[in-house]
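I had to read the description of the data format several times before I understood it. Each protein is reduced to its one-letter sequence and a matching series of backbone shape codes. The format is easy to grasp once an entry is in front of the reader. For illustration, here is how one protein appears when written out as sequence plus structure tokens:
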Amino acid sequence: MTSGFGLVVRFELRDDAAAAAFDYLVEQTLAGIKALEPGTLAYVVHAVPDEPNVRVFYELYADRDAFDQHEQQPHTKHFLAQREQYLSGVDVTFLSATAGKGPVAA
């Protein structure tokens, strides 16, 4: 097994309308990820119960190359170009696995 490559992204959305539009954009993007990205091992979008205009993504890739391939996909480029209009803030944390259980372990 490889150590994998991951990240957590916290998106703060401008308002309820922006959150709804962002969620639709995510649905469109996920279709491409599921169909075309075997190196994307997990791409999970979370709502935050007490913060309705926050979404947290957990992304896990087989390796850095798989992440780089994800970033070059047309559906990802579309997401990255369109998301800004809905955001009031974004925070990205890159991760390196040290221990765990799952398809990729240290």
User: Anything to note?
Assistant: The chain is about 40% helix and 35% strand. The two ends are 7 Å apart (CA to CA). The chain has one domain: 5-95.
